[in-house]
Amino acid sequence: MKKKSAVMLAAMVSMSLIVSACSKETSDVKSSGAPTASASASSAPKEMTFKFLDYSNPSWPYDANWKVWSYIKEKTGVKLDVQLPPGNLLEDALSMTVASGDMPDLMWTQTKAIADKFGQQGALVNILDYVNDMPNLKAWMAKYPTEAQNVLSSDGKMYVFPNEGLGESNRRTWMYREDVFKKLGLQTPNTWDELYDVLKKLKAQYPDSYPLTFRNGLRYLFDFGASFNVPAEVEKRKASVYFDKASNQWKYAPIQDEYKTMLTYLNKFYKDNLIPKDFLTLDTKMWQDIVSTNRAFITLDYIGRIDFYNSALRKDNPQFTMNFMAPPAGLPGVRKNAYTSFTEEGFMVSSKSKKIKDVMKFMDFFYSEEGKKLVSWGKEGETAKGNAFIDKYTDIADMRKKTGLSTDGTYAWFDFNAHISVSSPELQSAYKEAPKYDGNKNVSLAFTLDEQQVLSTKGDALNNNRDENFSKFIMGTRSFSEWDKFIDEQKKLGYEEIVNIYKKAYDRAQAAVKK
C-alpha cells in the first residue's frame, strides 16, 4: 500500500485518491486489530523523550511548567525536550540545525515553504510513508481532504503535519477606539477618503497622536491592499504575487495602478503626520505603547487584540473600548480584509531521528477526538468541565500564559470554541462580523527545489528593491512621477519570472486535482 501511495503522490494526485487510499488503509488496520492512538492512550503508555525545536511567542513565552506538557505526557507517555532558538529566530535556527545534520526528532515550522524546502533536500520524513501506522490521521484526512492536500509539496509528499482549527485566530482586521469616536461624535469611515478626513479630525483633537498606527513596517500593506484589489504578501520571504479571480490570472501587485493609488494615500497620511514617522521600525512593544496611551485610535492587527487591549486598559480607564471596524473601501465598493484565517505552522519530523515510528504514533494522538479536546480544553475536572473552562481568564493570552494550551508546538487539531469561550462580547461579535468582509482565500501552492532557489535569490533581490521603493514613495523621498521607472527596475530584476513560477505551480496543482 505504501508503494502505491508513493507512486500516486509523486504524480501529485488529487486528494480524492489520497482519501480513498487512506480509507482502505484504515480498514486494513482495523481488520488486523492494530490499536488506535486513543486506545493506546487509555493503557499505560510507554514513556519516552523526543527532542523538539520549538518557538517561544513573545506574548506568551515558553514555560516548561505549563500544564499542557504534563497532560500530553500523561496521555502519550511522551516528554518533549524543548529547545528554543537563539534570539527566538526559528527560521534561522532551522537552517543551521539542518545544515549541521544534528537534528532533533521534531521541529516546529511557521511556514510550509520551509518544510517543502528541507523535505525535498532529504532532511525531513515524508509523513505519508507512515500513514499505515496512523489511523487517526487517516480518518482526519478523509474528513479534511482540502486541508490535507494543502500541505503536500510539489513532489506529492507531506513534510509537515496538517494543522486545523486554530487558523481563525490569525484573522486580522481593522479596529478602532469606539469610546473616543463616540466622545468626538465621529463615524467610522466607509472609504479611504473618509479615513483621511477622520484621521485629520483625530489629529486636531490629539496633536501628539498618530491616529493610524500599525506595526512591523510594510507588512500590513498586504491587509491595506485588499480594499484596493491587490492583496499580495509584503514580507521578505514572499513575493508580492496574487491570483486575480476577475481575470483568472496571476499578477504582480507592486506594478499595478491600484497599488500606486494605495501608496499615494499612505504618502498623504505620512506628510500630514497621521501615521508614525518611524513606521518602518515600529515593533510590537512600541505599537502597543502608542495604542495604550491615547496616541493611536485606528489600527489593523490580529482580531484578538480587541481583548488584549480592553482587558488590560479598562482597569485604569473603564471607558476604553477597542472594537471591530469594517474595512474602508480603497476602490469604489471594495471593502475587504485580506484573508488571513489560516495557519501554515506545524510539526516536522527529522529524517535523522532514530525514533520515527514512535514519533508518528505520538503525533497520531493529536488527530483523535480525545487529543483534540485535550490540547484545546486541557484536562477534564482540572482546567475544563465539558466545553467550558473552570478558571476565569481575562483573554486568550492570559489562558495561554497560565496553561500553555494553544501555544506553538502543543497542537495539530484544535477546537476553536475554546478560544471563543474566553473571548469578550466585543470580540465574539467581531468574529461574527469580520467574515462578511473576507477577501479571496489564498491559493496554496507548492514549489520545486529549483523554483524555491529562484524565489530565494531573484525573489529576494526583487523584494529588497520593492521594499526600498515602497518606503521612499510613502515617505516622499521618491516622487510618484518615477513610478514607471520603478516598474522598469522591477522588470529588470525579474518579476515576470517570479509570476511565471507561481503560474506553473498553480497549473501543476490544477492538473493534479483534475486527474
TrEMBL record:
Keywords: Cell membrane, Lipoprotein, Membrane, Palmitate, Signal. Gene3D superfamilies: Periplasmic binding protein-like II. The keyword Lipoprotein applies. It comes from the Bacteria. Residues 1-21 form the signal peptide. The keyword Signal applies. Coiled coil: none annotated. This is Extracellular solute-binding protein. It comes from Paenibacillus germinis.
